[in-house]
Specification:
With 416 residues, the protein is mostly helical. α2 crosses α13, α5 crosses α6 and α8 crosses α14. The longest helix has 49 residues. GO terms for molecular function: metal ion transmembrane transporter activity.
């Protein structure tokens, strides 16, 4: 009983990771994967989760042992490492939050049947509301609220997936032909799916920052306890990705239905595909679950990008004085909201292309950031007894090789 109590007490960064990951990669990409390509897409989903595991685990391991963030570790490896990560973060600043808030705004419009209000204005309302929650509630509110959200979401998806499986797979239309995977369109989709599955690799530093923040108000757990928290969150993300894929496969595969790139239309399609297969009574249940999924993702990603941006600026320009203050955090949260609102307003008609670009960049840089994280945990910063074992090191190199070869294969298709 004591072990369970300690485990629950230490839950925090791992669940925040799960809440952040269960968003675009799950609700959008996993559902679309099952709907367009069928059961075969379980393979890249599982492979992405397995091969990327060490990249994220090292974020927890490095911070737990050294009391430093991964970003500080990059600086210790050389300023070039930090500048590279700063560039990736800058790119993410203009894409990730805009993409997440766009999908969430679409779900909100669908859920409450809003008419006469543009997507960008709904997104603006979400930016204001979430910014206030983050500034006033701080990390503690984020952690407590998301423990409930993730728990409810997990239960809701278990029920939904069970009902979908019980009702059986939709009968394919006559003369249905499976969508090819290994062509330019299919490979691009695979890159998007694996680039954001379970989430972007640059988010490995987000977990380390959340860990540091949690320890300010709670006794620091052991490395074993920190890894338990992370492993629970990581397992949940992988399992829920499979649930979403199964739902897409059982309800849409073989029907020749194309899921829209428009956020509002996509939101309506997702909710309708659930209710058509399960029953109209499930509409509000499914709509709220989908919206809660994306809302929690927006909140965690907005918080994380704000903290990462401040950490990077602190390390790049130490003579300017620390930016790790409540005022600096509040300003950064608001500034990110303004920047991404402008992106949504300016590129609303081309958000699909913007998301595709963001996922492609995330996929291409994943092996590089994975290698940087390995350099951190194998450095003199970490005592030999706390470094990853040989099998985890091998898995890291296999992940780097797998993602690199896939990127090369994509470029080969594009060129030839």
């Amino acid at each position: 009983m004591d072990k369970l109590r300690i485990l629950i007490k230490n839950l925090g960064p791992g669940l925040l990771f799960a809440s952040m990951a269960i968003g675009t990669s799950h609700l959008v990409l996993s559902t679309k994967a099952g709907a367009q390509y069928g059961w075969i897409m379980i393979i890249p989903i599982i492979l992405a989760n397995i091969f990327k595991y060490p990249f994220f685990e090292f974020g927890v391991r490095y911070t737990s042992v050294t009391n430093k963030t991964l970003i500080e570790g990059y600086l210790n490896r050389g300023k070039g490492y930090l500048w590279f990560y700063a560039f990736i973060t800058l790119f993410s600043t203009f894409t990730i939050l805009a993409a997440l808030y766009t999908v969430t705004a679409g779900l909100f419009i669908n859920l409450f049947k809003i008419t006469g209000v543009s997507l960008s204005m709904v997104a603006l309302g979400l930016f204001v509301f979430i910014s206030v929650l983050l500034i006033v509630g701080k990390y503690k509110f984020l952690e407590i609220s998301l423990k409930f959200v993730v728990s409810i979401l997990f239960i809701a998806l278990i029920v939904t997936t069970g009902l979908v499986l019980f009702n059986g797979q939709t009968i394919p239309v006559e003369n249905f032909e499976p969508t090819p995977i290994f062509n330019e369109v299919g490979i691009l989709f695979l890159i998007g799916l694996m680039g954001w599955m379970p989430t972007t690799v640059e988010a490995s530093s987000w977990i380390s920052l959340w860990s540091i923040e949690k320890w300010k108000t709670q006794e620091k757990p052991t490395l074993k306890e920190s890894l338990q928290d992370f492993n629970i969150g990581y397992f949940l993300t992988g399992l829920l990705a499979i649930f979403f894929m199964l739902i897409g496969w059982f309800t849409l595969y073989g029907t020749n239905t194309i899921l829209s790139d428009n956020a509002v239309s996509f939101a309506d399609q997702v909710v309708q595909l659930f209710t058509t297969h399960i029953g109209p009574w499930a509409y509000i249940f499914i709509a709220i679950s989908a919206f809660a999924t994306m809302f929690s993702t927006c909140m965690t990603a907005h918080d994380a990008v704000s903290r990462v941006s401040l950490d990077i600026l602190d390390l790049l320009f130490p003579k300017k004085g620390t930016l790790q203050t409540k005022l600096s955090f509040a300003i950064t949260v608001i500034l990110l909201a303004i920047i991404n609102y402008v992106v949504i307003a300016a590129f609303a008609a081309n958000m699909g292309n913007l998301v595709a670009l963001a996922t492609f960049v995330s996929f291409v840089v994943a092996p590089l950031i994975g290698y940087m994280n390995l350099k951190n945990v194998m450095s003199s910063d970490v005592s030999p007894e706390f470094r990853p074992n040989k099998s985890l090191q091998i898995l890291t190199y296999l992940g780097i090789l797998f993602l690199s070869l896939f990127s090369v294969y994509y470029f080969w298709i594009i060129i030839f």
